Amino acid sequence: MEEEETYLELYLDRCAAQDALVPPRSPVLSPAVPYDVYIPNLSNPETTFNSQLEEVTETSGNFSSVDLSFLPDELTQESKDQTVIRSKHEIEENCKTQSRQSRLPLPSQQDIGLALNSSSGSNSHSHLHTGDADSAQPSPEKPYSLPLASITPMTPMTPVSECSGIVPQLQNIVSTVNLACKLDLKKIALHAKNAEYNPKRFAAVIMRIREPRTTALIFSSGKMVCTGAKSEEQSRLAARKYARVVQKLGFPARFLDFKIQNMVGSCDVRFPIRLEGLVLTHQQFSSYEPELFPGLIYRMVKPRIVLLIFVSGKVVLTGAKERSDIYEAFENIYPILKGFKKT
Amino acid sequence: MPGGGRCPGCGSSELVEDSHYSQSQLVCSDCGCVVTEGVLTTTFTDEGNLREVTYSRSTGKNEQVSRSQQRGLCRVRDLCRVLQLPPAFEDTAVAYYQQAYQHSGIRAARLQKKEVLVGCCVLITCRQRNWPLTMGTICTLLYADLDVFSGTYMQMVKLLGLDVPSLCLVDLVKTYCSSFKLFEASPSVPAKYVEDKDKMLSRTLQLVELADETWLVTGRHPLPVITAATFLAWQSLRPSDRLPCSLARFCKLANVDLPYPASSRLQELLAVLLRMAEQLAWLQVLKLDKRSVVKHIGDLLQHRHTLVRKAFRDGTAEMDTQEKELQGQEQGQGQGQGPSEEDVGSSPSDLPAGKRPASPALLLPPCMLKPPKRVCPTPPVSTVTGDENISDSEIEQYLRTPQEVRDFQRAQAAGQAAMNVPNPP
User: Any chain B CB within 8 A of the CB of A287?
Assistant: First the structure.
């Protein structure tokens, strides 16, 4: 029990830190969309305390009877509800990928945007176990213990059958921002080491920074496109750094209308897919031309995402403006793909 | 050959635009009768031949249609005739062209694109009627780039909201195989290489079906697979004489282009056949290799369904058991699923005792069987918020010092001067 308490304190410290930084994004996740976290193995000692729970069994325990007196005061009042409800969310027990690896928490912003799926009756009272990084000892007969460290974010309550256990990884984010001042591209190319400018080839300066590793196209009108980031926050940070570089070069650059224009994600379903079959059953959405491109192009209507599905089971999702669109699209396509698994 | 014209002399529709000095004429290529002549004579029938007529005699039929569109429609009909398509296809293709032309994006497109659009219309018509026409053929006929063709094709399908069925593999095999010039002896084709068309066709179809079942066709261009299958079928029908002949030589004497991926498809198909051969008791003792297995293709194809089932275990089932295995380990319970699965799969009862075929291979596409070229490291979790402070030193690392700026300018100027130096006399 002491072990659990230290874990809880560590976790709550993190929560307190996260709460201080309110993300600009609004909660976008809909309760109806089930998704899960599939986080590959990483031997980071810091994260082991967040390792995933291996198994969840249902109990009839009532959360209201839980003793939360050990929680620090500010949490007991304000986020007690949030903590309790958040602790209700966990990964479904039958996701086969779950047990294999220790989990990592996703970036903190996702925590806060959670739509609480308290409406779903199933699994509303679940028994959470703390798990060690390597092995889980499920003991259903254990009395109810408080959910602790391994609360991975963004796991609304969903029935087990809808879970795919795979989370698409974001590979690229394209964003635009308006620096709101006319720029002298020749001067920028002269004074900045990381810039290239070839007016005959393209009418913009191509600038690169190392951290986060991104590329920006800076136009003389003051508009800028930033590509290559792996998350929305990184894209915003990178865009700010470019704006600072331009500022330091003597232009009155501002940072207006930052907008994510496109997000690209990819994942692997781990089984081969009969593309010819898929194009037959989903003709109105799919386009499969092996003479032109080895993958099947699936244009999903809701959410409006384009998926490239390959025979090896790898899926690329693009066209999203929000991270949740990608997750939702993948959860929509996964049952369809599973239908083509046994050939 | 413009549409709709018939020679009044012999009734043939083979009218050719020919010019006599500076006067353009429409001449029948069968009987030589001059159907229309330039501006010297214009009659009502001239309009039907798409010739210019005086306003008072014109019917206005072509008025709504722009000249560029008229030309395009002509090209569509021409292409249909060159490909010797059934007459009904022509009208459908023309209708598609007219439909596409109603969109402003197409109307304003470059001539190159309009040219390619002609091919797209014909292709879509053929696909919808299960006529096996490949994009490669059309691109060759139109002298078009496949990239340009693909862009226009995808745009057109999207714009018109069309449902284009996939290329029918069986029909393609029949058409493509028939084009191989191996069915009668000629100076270039010795007697031992001549083959009966039906036998070769049926065997090729079986091989292509086998390739499709073993994941060699999905995601790949269909034609190289068919080339490889045709070659194997031809070789296996008379292996003693034909084994020394290579794939390239085969295509040359059959007067067919050898597509580049065909040799790797051939290797993949042979590997599949070898795996199947391992399941047949009387072939096991022979220790076959890629050349000797060709002699037994007939037998292998006869029992192909059973052999594929025995030689390959379902790749997806294997993955499920693997995962269950790991789950079992995690939960501290040893589950011997993995080894037992192997045993079940690889011990058919009709084998002599002590002699077992190789353990079943995974039935997966070749891209999944190859080890990954590079292991993509999972990105570390970043706790970036986007609002961090950006230190001055970090930004300054990207800026040039004044000295560096001067050096750079000097270097640029020197480079420019070097370029502008005139050649020495």
Answer: yes
Please name the helix (run of DSSP H) or strand (run of DSSP E) that holds residue A204, with its range, or none.
strand A204-209
* A282 close to B (CB below 8 A): no
Out of B163, B381, B399, name the one closest to residue A193 (CB). Answer: B399
Question: Phi, psi (5° rounding) for residue A338?
Answer: -60, -30
For residue B77 the two structure tokens come to 């009909």
Scan for tokens 């290329």, then name that residue.
Answer: B167
Helices (H) and strands (E) in chain A, counts: 9, 12
Q: Are A315 and A267 in contact (CB under 8 A)?
A: yes
Q: CA–CA separation, A286 vs B163, rounded Å?
A: 10
Contact A288 B166 (CB under 8 A): yes
A288, containing H or E segment: strand A286-288
User: What is the residue type of A130?
Assistant: T
Whether A334 and A166 have beta carbons less than 8 Å apart is answered as yes
**This model's pTM is above 0.80:** no
At residue B251, the pLDDT reads 93
pLDDT tens-place string over residues B224-261:
999 999 999 999 999 998 999 999 999 999 999 999 99
pLDDT score, position A233: 93
Å between B308 CA and nearest CA of chain A: 13
Which among B200, B202, B221, B307 is positioned nearest to B264, based on CA atoms?
Answer: B221
N-term to C-term CA, chain A: 49
Angle at A330 between CA A327 and CA A332, to 5 degrees: 110
**Residue B118, H or E segment:** helix B111-128
| ipTM score assigned to the predicted complex | 0.76
| CA separation for the pair A208, B194 (Å, rounded) | 63
Q: Quick one: how far is CA B423 from the chain centroid? A: 50
Determine the length of chain A.
Answer: 343
Q: By the CB < 8 Å criterion, does A27 face chain B?
A: no
CA distance B16 to B87: 19
Q: What is the DSSP letter of A212?
A: T
- pLDDT of residue A219 exceeding 60, the answer is yes
Give the closest-approach CA distance of A64 to chain B in angstroms.
31
* A274 CA to centre of own chain: 28
Closest by CA to A7, choosing from A128, A156, A169, is: A128
Q: What is the pLDDT of residue A266?
A: 95
Distance of alpha carbon A203 from alpha carbon B65, whole angstroms: 40
Indicate the residue of A241, A288, A311 with minimum beta-carbon distance to B395.
A241
Residue B300 burial class via C-beta count within 10 angstroms: exposed 0-12, middle 13-18, buried 19 and up? buried
B170-217 pLDDT, tens digit each: 999 999 999 998 888 888 888 889 989 999 999 999 999 999 999 999
Q: Are A106 and A35 in contact (CB under 8 A)?
A: no
The answer to whether residues A272 and A311 touch, using CB atoms and an 8 Å cutoff, is yes
Q: How far apart are CA A10 and CA A130, in angstroms?
A: 14
Which DSSP letter does residue B180 get? S
**Is A145 at the interface with chain B, CB within 8 A?**
no
